Every structure is written in structure tokens, then in C-alpha cells.
Amino acid sequence: MFIIGERINGMFKDVAKAIKEKDKAVIQALALKQVSCKANALDVNVGPASANPKEAMEWLVKTIQEVTGITLAIDTTKLDVMETGLSLCKAKPIINSVNANEEKMKNLFPLAKKYNASIIGLTMDKAGIPKDSEGRMELAMKLVAACVEYGIETSELYLDAVILPVNVAQPHAKEVLKTIRDSKMLADPAPKTVLGLSNVSQGSPAQYKNLINRTFLTMAIANGLDAAIMDATDKELMDSVITSELLMEKQLYCDSYLEAYRKK
Fold this sequence. Notes:
The chain is about 45% helix and about 15% strand. It is built from ten helices and eight strands.
């Protein structure tokens, strides 16, 4: 399972404050903690914390790369901010994200080619998020077709079936799981699949959020999920990842399998 740590995001108050004050220590501590908890990549999003997001993205990427060479997922809706982040990445980057709108694909797939970046593709367009897996699969096919058009391996595409909060869109959960399963049939090599996990519990009571996240992630892994944007520092959540992969025969069993995984 490919884990993209979600914590370096200007939507979090501590990150927003660090960006505003250019406090490297806070950002670097968050980066190193996620890496130590076995994150494979770090999401990097300046959020609304800066009046100059391009400058803030440059500072964030450089600050993180002073302490780790881990893969970075550049997370922004602004094209110039995206290119700034990608151009500074020392490791192979990830574009987070591209939806199935023609204009978005036309702008961002060439950047993926230029910077040898993987792509998170959202199964949504100007009409919104489809209610069922069939609608999501139609948009997934557009994203796969764009990979072919721009000469990008389909294995570099991470399809995000866009999970919505269960408290307002309960029927979507099973449609997302079906989309994850069916996505493997879209191309050879198959695209990968990813979820922005915390969306599923957004708006639910605080005492249930972690349980909802853990349960849905386990179900998604059983349906073939390859990656998740999630809190890598949540030990119980990571234990669920490791155990799910063990039961799916993606990890070798031993009586101390959790400790063994973390020592790898």
C-alpha cells in the first residue's frame, strides 16, 4: 500500500501558522514524523495560508527537501503553483490532482509528461461526481485515454473514485468500492487506485471518525485499493493497513508482523 501523508496542508492550523511565519521547524518535524511512520510520499498543499501561494509552495518544497528526499504530491488547483512545485521536486513527483474536465487534462497532463510525474485523476467533471460506479468509470476512461494521448504509462495514473462523506452521501461508499474493483480492467498495465480517505468521515461525530476511516480503508484494500492520502501518524489506522494487506497475502505472516513491517 502506497501511503501519502496528508498533514502538510495549509488547512491545518499549525501548518498555516508555520507557512505564514516561515517556521521551518514545524514543517520539517511534520515531514519527518510522517516518514518515520512509513509514509511513502507527502502531500504538499499551501491551502489558504498565503497571499502568494507560488512563493509559499516554493518555500514548502525546499523546506521539506532539506530533511527528506521522499516523493512529494503537489496539491494545488493553480497551474503556476503546480509547476513551481513540480520543478523543485528532487524525487519523482505526483500531481494532485486532475479531474476529467478537458481543460484540466489539457493543462496538467503535459506537465506530468514534462516533469515525469505520476497523476492522481479524479472521477469527476464539470457536472460533478457521478452517483454510481458506471458514471465514475466513464470519467476514469477519459483519464486513461488522456494518458495514452500524452504518452504517459497508464500505470502512472492513480484513479480516485472520490469518496464523499458517509453522513450525507451514504450510497456512494459501495459505488466507490465497485469503481476501485472495476478500474483494474480499464487498461494494461492497469491504472492504480487511490482515496482521499478522511473525506469519508468528514462531518461525522468526532468519536466515530477514526472508526469510519479504518473500516472503509480496510474494505477498500480488500477491493484492490493501491494508495491512500491519509494520516500516516495514526497508529491504529496504519495497523489496519498492515493487517489488511497481511490478510490479502501482500505481507508475509509472522507473530510480530506489525513490528516487522515497521522495521522494513
